[in-house]
Amino acid sequence: MESPLVSPKAVPVYLGIDVGSVTTKMVVLAADSGAVLDHVYLRTNGDPIRSIRQVMARIEGDPREFQVLAAATTGSGRMLAAKLIGTDLVKNEITTHTLAALTIAPDAQTIIEIGGQDSKIIIVRERMAIDFNMNTVCAAGTGSFLDQQAGRLGMRVEDMGEMALASESPASISGRCTVFAETDMIHKQQIGVGRNDIVAGLCQSLVRNYLATVGRGKQILAPVVFQGGVAANKGIVREFEKQTGHAIEVFPYYGVAGAYGAAIYASKAPGERPPFQGFELLKRDFTVDSFTCRKCEEECTVLRLHRDAKAVSFWNDRCGRYSEAKKGNHDNGDTAI
Amino acid sequence: MKVTFPHLGSMYIFCKAIAEEAGIPYVLPPPTTDKTRELGEFHTNESVCLPLKIILGNFIEALDAGADTIVMVGSGPPCRLGLYDRTIKLILTDLGYEFRWLTIPGIFSWQSFLQNHDETKELRKELTIANFLRFPRAIMIGWRKMRWCEYLEGAAAKKRAVAVHPLEVERWLQTSLAALDKARSLLAISRAGKQAVAGLVDIKAHGRKPLKVMMVGEVYTVMEPSINMNIEQRLGHQGVEVERSSYFSGHIRRGSRLDRGLLKERQELMALAVPYLKYDVGAECNFSVAETVLAKNRDYDGVVHVYPFSCMPETTAASVLSTVATELGIPVLTLPLDRKDMGLRIDTQIEAFVDIMHMKRSGHLL
Amino acid sequence: MKIGLPIELLSLEWVRRLQQDITQLLPDVRFCHGSGSARGGYQDIPLSEGDACFPFKKMIRTAMALLPEVDRLLIPRLVRLDGHLLCPNFRAFPDLVALNRDRLAGPGKETAIIDTVVEISNRTDEERVRVELIQALLGNSVPTFSTEFPKPESADDRAAKLTAKLGPYAKSIALIGRAYMVQDPHLNMGIPAILNGQGYGVITPQDIDFPTLDQVATRNDYYAKTMYWRGARECLGAFMHLTEGFEPAGIIYLLSFNCGVDALVRIELMSLHKKLDKKIPMMVLVGDEHSQREHVFTRLEAFLDVIDGITTS
């Protein structure tokens, strides 16, 4: 482990990485001012190691010579990311979204987030999160679905908003699940309903579903902050305003809110942080694989990180026989079967 | 005769003890796994509650392993648990299994007594005088083991939340339950229990005050870890002490109607839900709401509400709690459960829930 | 006085008799039932509807929509009818509406809800409940009851009605399901009309007197394992009764997604169906909030093709 020479021009920063199932996001915050110095939003494409490497390459290659004081990870891939960049600061995405929202809009009472694969609502009172909900059973309409439909209709996601706003009579689209919603949209197209109305109907259906499932029972008060890639869609914003009766504030870094919150979390972590090792990812060979441990009926899928072909870290085992093994224990999982 | 019974947390130790002490051969159903659930799902449909699917799976696996007599706890309307035996019997018979069935009445009534009499007619022929004479002692041993198991599980829940290495508590619990299971006399049981308690003291605690949470919801889901995704453990490893609202022994004592004190306690509890539900909706619905109010009165940090997806009474309770919790000012995490592949989702929600409880305690965001 | 009584409850026969009774005794009363098509926008229903079955969600939405329009909202707490329990959702119905009402931002907060407990196993119960209910409605001034509580239709009258209904059709299909599923146009997905349009008569469990169905369903009961829900007994009894005497050309079982009662009844009906001596085609249709008419029509068409194929060969 090398200790990089810190030049006097180095800019101390905090780093937040949000590894989602669809997209990987990163935010770099200046340590002194808290300003966002860089942010990135790229597709995970099923290969989180590659996307995290891309993020690291970008930070290392930045001419401003970032010196990472502390880094935190969030999102469904937060454990893997933490292992890869060598940090112990891991935070669930609900809390990081809250941190992000309250840093920029401290009086927010409601946070709405619609991401690639899931949606959340967070209720805030007196500057603290008091309640939240995440969709657990399938509900039609998250970011992926909008992307997919944009592709199918031959338009860009960015343009969907304008098209929806241009409609005066949104078509009625099924809300059971994405398959049925698509079937409905195709049917409406076939019978001649205009694209603006279809897109507007889609936005209406997504928001209605969100409020009926994720949001139901929660008291939505203003100010309402809207995060997630979907916040770029003006049609969705308009629907939320119509259906809740409140003005909706689109979070300035709506696409990377989780990463932003993670960076804030990193900045508040107490005590001396160990030196940042994330750039090791670019110098050495890292791979992750998994094996099924059959030592008991749990049959955990244990994840294993290799650095330069040597197993260095394990996680996801329920009993801890791998992740909590003392140093020198040679059980690296190959004899597990 | 080879009896078997469903998995319900550590209740199997109770059933096994009775069978052992009374000299009745038994077959323990294999531990509940994904395969068990899949078996249950395959032979029912999507709106059937998870406990039914898992119990059905347990019985199929037990019958495949050689059991021929099924012992099941009965219950009553209006929830579906009371019809489990009728439905499961039908499915198993249609699948071609041959078996005998014995329902332990959950609520004493003439009907259930007559049914019991009828069911045991055949079975009694296979038992000897010796079996019968050993029953009272067997029940006492089983009961004592169960009470110790419940005590140790409660102690584990407390220690887990403050242990420096929570996994030590899991290992301790496994060993202690196994020791209790092996014990064959009241003396041995007592010794095993006391030894376990002494062992628990040795596990290092970090001294920080844990968060305290009450787990409420449908009976089976609260008691069976393979259904509730080991939520007690997951919460415990995040520094949360979980108090369960349902214990098997409590249900038996209530059903027998012998413990007046317990019945009175129950009535008083129901009264807490009256501002929201004026009538007993059935099963644990009113109690889930009442226990949330109780948790608030006792100044707990939060409530976890677990129930099987499609459970009618609990869906109503969840509906009530969706706003009542915020009004009362106690965080409630609602978890409808159906599949096992939700591990990461649950962890994320638990983490956020723990963060919220910390925020509330400390008065600020981080 | 304007009294709200959610339209979904009217599908239950006892509730219709109750309305008849009240109309006779209190001529000043006007009933309002709502349209039954309430969409339940976010701001209309404060509590989470959760995963409740669609009929229940719909009932609550209808009740909420009625609140601002009526003087009193009548939601009898239907615990037991004809000696058998109703699904537990009916017990919670008045309380959930009350909880929603108290949290409304808009009008309707002041409307009282009459939630008299209804547990009926015999005629005496009917007379008693009727007194309690009317007292609750009028606020304790006891009226004189000059007539008795309307009796249910006799078995013979019902049979005659059924014969008349099926008269124009050569063949009939048994549409088995809960009363509200089968009668409410927002829940039955237009099935009765489609079947009639295709030349088939429709016979439902509600066309047969309940004591007969109850009796038949008893055959599958033993000791404490009575199928305790009235709706379930209705469906089971109808299936057994119709497949023995009547022999419909086909059977359609119409149920709600996430209905706990139907989940178990479905298992029993599938089992009974497998054991029938004469094979009658059966189709299970699961409806919910998102059901689309086009999908249902396609399935029905295919089902009728199967039936036609068999009966004309």
What does this protein look like?
The complex is a heterotrimer of chains A (337), B (366) and C (313). Chain A is built from 10 helices and 12 strands. Chain A is globular. In chain A, 34% of the residues lie in helices and 24% in strands. Chain A is α/β, with parallel strands linked by helices and 337 residues long. In chain A, the strands form 3 sheets. A 5-stranded mixed sheet of chain A has the order 7-6-5-8-9, with helices on both faces. Chain B has 366 residues and is of the alpha/beta class. Helices cover 58% and strands 10% of the residues of chain B. Chain B contains 15 helices and 7 strands. In chain B, the strands form 2 sheets. Chain B has a 4-stranded parallel sheet with strand order 5-4-6-7, with helices on both faces. In chain B, strands 1-2-3 form a 3-stranded parallel sheet. The relative contact order of chain B is 0.11. The model of chain B has no long low-confidence stretch (mean pLDDT 89). Chain C has 313 residues and is an alpha/beta fold. A 4-stranded parallel sheet of chain C has the order 2-1-3-6, with helices on both faces. In chain C, strands 9-8-10-11 form a 4-stranded parallel sheet, sandwiched between helices. In chain C, helix 2 (54-66) packs across helix 3, helix 8 packs across helix 9 and helix 9 (230-246) runs parallel beside helix 10. Chain C starts with a strand and ends with a helix. Classes of the chains: A alpha/beta (337), B alpha/beta (366), C alpha/beta (313). Chains in contact: A-B, A-C, B-C. At the B-C interface, helix 4, helix 5 and helix 14 of B face helix 3 and helix 10 of C.
